[in-house]
Prior knowledge:
Elements lengths: L3 H9 L4 E5 L6 H7 L7 E9 L2 E8 L2 E3 L1 H8 L4 E3 L2 H4 L21 E5 H4 L3 E8 L2 E6 H8 L2 E3 L2 E3 L5 H4 L1
Parallel strand pairs: 2-7, 3-6, 6-9
Antiparallel strand pairs: 1-8, 2-3, 2-5, 4-10, 7-8
Amino acid sequence: MTAKRLKDFLDREGVKYETIAHSPAYTARDTAQAAHVQGKDFAKTLIVKIDGRLAMAVLPASEKLDLAQLKKAAGAKHVSLAFESEFEKWFPGCEPGAMPPFGNLYGMEVFVAKSLAADEQIAFNAGSHAELVRTAYKDFERLAQPIVAVLSTPSRPVSKVESA
């Protein structure tokens, strides 16, 4: 079920969106596949620590976060991925790891990958591992007011040798 806070926010702002139910999935790539959304169009939300404060890094499921690029974009001294135990209480009503990319709803700054900002529409977790929301990128940008920067690099496919 869509997180109430997210649904209320999108409805209040008059945003057109679609909810897509899918079989439970716990990685961004698996979620995109389960919902039949291309990896480049599915926005995964990573929680990071930037000079000790929590923030969101939002990038395509088909890419991986480049911490050096995020550090540069944030003008920070220290950047790292946050541990779930450091942020799970910030997202009431959301399953761990299924946070929507609206940092403004949770008191967090949002950084979005330039590659994702080029999309007409984006899809993202809606607070659960079995539902996502798809909306126009321009609506996401208007509401979340992210800092758009180069944050990610394409993920390289895992070879059969590596996965064994």
